[in-house]
């Protein structure tokens, strides 16, 4: 865990709860060191580049948190430099709650999951919405010609802190893409067995002279 992550996450009230459960002393050593913003390590870059989805949390003018799913082809979440990520925001249900919230309060949090390997990365940052009229080059950079979706805007997040979360209680889940190589092996084996079965049947048929 980075020092800056602790500065953001572990407020005084959080500390009181940690004290109740016996973890306050351990986490208190990680606070108030002011080493932020965090810079991505190579393993974080590799992890983010392979993801096809994440969860985005924003805060509304009314103070209510809002969590939304964001998905796309693997790699649609781009690492632009040591502490900046960006993605193409595709057309969805036209509610624009996350986009509107960012206009009022640019603080965001992301939870990025790798279910097959039970890995979870938490990110704090400041988001900025970029429309095609503002920066067509950025939208082009974030686009994927093989993914047929309407890009309404881009989102750039300057990362303040991140932390790898404990893998406890993460249930492994697999997409069709994850399973496809294994399914191909099974399909090929089924084809082989069907061919062997057909050959055995043919060998067992009585000849015309019997």
UniProtKB/TrEMBL annotation:
Coiled coil: none annotated. Pfam families: PNPOx_N. The lineage of its organism: Bacteria, Bacillati, Actinomycetota, Actinomycetes, Micromonosporales. It comes from the Bacteria. This is Phosphatase. Residues 41-137 form the Pyridoxamine 5'-phosphate oxidase N-terminal domain. It comes from Actinoplanes auranticolor. InterPro entries: Pyridox_Oxase_N, Split_barrel_FMN-bd.
């Amino acid at each position: 865990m980075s020092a800056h992550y602790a500065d953001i996450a572990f407020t005084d009230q959080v500390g009181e709860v940690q004290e109740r459960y016996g973890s306050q002393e351990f986490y208190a050593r990680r606070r108030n060191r002011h080493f932020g913003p965090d810079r991505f390590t190579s393993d974080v870059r590799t992890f983010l580049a392979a993801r096809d989805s994440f969860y985005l949390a924003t805060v509304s003018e009314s103070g209510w948190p809002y969590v939304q799913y964001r998905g796309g082809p693997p790699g649609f979440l781009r690492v632009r430099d040591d502490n900046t990520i960006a993605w193409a925001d595709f057309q969805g249900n036209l509610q624009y709650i996350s986009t509107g919230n960012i206009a009022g309060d640019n603080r965001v949090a992301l939870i990025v999951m790798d279910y097959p390997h039970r890995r979870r990365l938490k990110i704090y940052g400041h988001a900025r919405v970029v429309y095609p009229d503002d920066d067509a080059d950025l939208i082009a950079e974030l686009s994927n010609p093989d993914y047929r979706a309407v890009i309404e805007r881009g989102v750039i997040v300057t990362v303040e802190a991140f932390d790898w979360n404990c893998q406890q209680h993460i249930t492994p889940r697999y997409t069709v893409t994850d399973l496809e190589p294994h399914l191909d092996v099974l399909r090929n084996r089924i084809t082989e067995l069907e061919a062997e079965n057909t050959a055995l049947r043919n060998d067992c048929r009585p000849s015309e002279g019997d």
